[in-house]
Amino acid sequence: MSEDEQSRQTFYEALGGAEGIRRIVESFYPKVQAHPLLGPLFPENIDPVIEKQYMFLSQFFGGPPLFSEAHGHPMMRARHLPFPITEERAKAWLGCMAQALEESGLDHKVQLAALERLKGPAYHFINS
């Protein structure tokens, strides 16, 4: 792919589109479930959470508005208020995402850009 083609590519496309987002999310949640700070916040049946995260990240990174079409406006801070989210948990969440992105095999610059973009929401959700 030429540099010009890369510059016109959306972030969603740079992450591999639907297939790439799915791969990242499916790599991410086992790490979350195993994490001592994060695992207890999630239900035993993680499948609905995985699907919502896939829809949200697709939309968040410039792909189709799957989350909004299925669940309305994301209102992610409000949706996370019932859970005690500390700075330590936000960092842990980002750490799990960094591992999932690394395993994705994406270009390192794309991984770093995705993490940088996710820092805003991760820290915005802190409520404890």
Automatic annotation (TrEMBL):
It comes from Paenibacillus filicis. PANTHER family: TWO-ON-TWO HEMOGLOBIN-3. This is Globin. Pfam families: Bac_globin (PF01152). Belongs to the truncated hemoglobin family. Group II subfamily. Keywords: Heme, Iron, Metal-binding, Transport. Transmembrane segments: none annotated.
